[in-house]
Amino acid sequence: MSTLTIAAAQSFSLAGDILGNIVRHGRFIEAAAEQGVELLVFPELSLTGYEGQDAVALAIDPQDAVLQPLRDLARELGVTAVVGMPIRLEGSVSALIGALVLGADGSLGVYSKQHLHTGEERFFAPGFGGPTLRFGGEVVALAVCADFTHASHAAAAADQGANLYAAGVLISDKGYAVDTAILQGYARQHSMAVLMANHGGLTGGWQSAGRSSIWSKDGSLIVAAPGTGDLLVVAQRNDGAWQGRVVPVTQAR
């Protein structure tokens, strides 16, 4: 079994500030590269914060040039980064909750959230999912928050051969125990590692629980952030055995 290093970027988002958040994301990508991370997953709507009322105004075409600095950095440092962004696909006026895959090879992948939380329909349309990602022999299925609350979503990932289920989320303290139990259960049920990248602090009026986590395919917790804040939650597999670490990410002032 090959080595693999993955990480959840538990990041704090500046409300509606795409350019400011791009700078912050860049620091996470740099920190991930320093840790040898191959796949880095950010929380839901990480590049804008969870600002539903502004989603239509903030939504971009996935190919928008505003993302080019991050795409260039991901390619330069050899890190595939999955970033959260409201997007608008060609021919549509509706905003979707996107997870954009900035490939280490310079490619761009698009995943859009299929299942909306109650109330999100005021600002977003349901999305269409997206293809799995491949890292050598690894198959990665993406999810965005409420997607994982539908058992059929994780089952479909397993049916596609996924051995890693990676979710960018916004989970508060109130929902944390239930939601993490669901994700841990998927690891056991489908024999796939599960990564959860949560926000690092307050966003869109919601106080995130932080505590981003990664579980192995038998449901064992590999590593979890101890609380909130800008943290890199890293899991590394060598010869089938996982080790985890939590790395603070210092942002420029």
From TrEMBL:
Alphabetical list of InterPro entries matching this protein: Aliph_Amidase/BUP, C-N_Hydrolase, C-N_Hydrolase_sf
Entry-linked Pfam families: CN_hydrolase (PF00795)
GO molecular function ontology, one term from the record: N-carbamoylputrescine amidase activity
Domain CN hydrolase: 4-239
Record keywords, A-Z: Hydrolase
UniProt-recorded name of the protein: CN hydrolase domain-containing protein
Entry keyword Hydrolase: yes
Entry keyword annotation includes Hydrolase: yes
Any one GO biological process: putrescine biosynthetic process from arginine
Gene3D superfamilies linked: Carbon-nitrogen hydrolase (3.60.110.10)
